[in-house]
Amino acid sequence: MISLKSKQSGFTIVELLIVIVVIGILAGLVITTFNGIQQKARDTERETDVKALHSQLEAFWAQKAYYPSLADMNDQASGGFVATNMKGLDLGAFKDPKGSSNTLLATAASGSYAYAVSDASGNSCEADDTTCAKYVLTATLEGTINGSSTYVQNSLNN
User: Kind of pairing, strands 113-118 and 148-154?
Assistant: First the structure.
């Protein structure tokens, strides 16, 4: 006997919807994980930059017995303070991965690094930078490192 029903092959709409939903869930997981990895990479770069600045500042202290002022640290032009006194420092260490400026700020802010320098009593030393005896370098993180949303590096004289 010959059947009058013709056999059609293919996927039903329900099967297609299930596949689309599964692909959507997997794509969401991948994007979330990727964003977290990028965030951690930027935080690691911030930590590396602050450590590089810290090393150069301590080397400067070893030679001069004082720390540079904020104005000195922001003099990054060719032939400027940084180029003359911190020859091994890459100017990229002054720029936050998500920031747009190479300028250090006096207080911590997202998208930039902070460099607070003071004399031994904790007063401003901008007028006479040869009295600068301690500093605090700060980077604002996107995530946390050791439970903190900032990475702080103090001078060895604190």
Answer: unpaired
Name the nearest CA neighbour of 152 among 37, 54, 60, 59.
Answer: 54
Alpha carbons 14 and 146: distance in angstroms, whole number:
48
Which among 77, 57, 45 has a CA at the least distance from the CA of 117?
57
Contacting residues for 129 by C-beta, under 8 A, at least 6 apart: 66, 67, 68, 69, 71, 72
Distance CA 32, CA 19 (A): 20
Tokens describing residue 111: 């998208």
> If residue 136 lies in a helix (H) or strand (E), which one and from where to where?
strand 134-145
Residues 6+ apart with CB under 8 A from 57: 67, 68, 135, 137, 155
pLDDT (tens digit, 9 = 90+) per residue, 36-67?
A: 899 999 999 999 999 999 999 999 999 999 99
Provide the 10 A C-beta neighbour count for residue 112.
22
Could you tell me the pTM of the whole model? 0.79
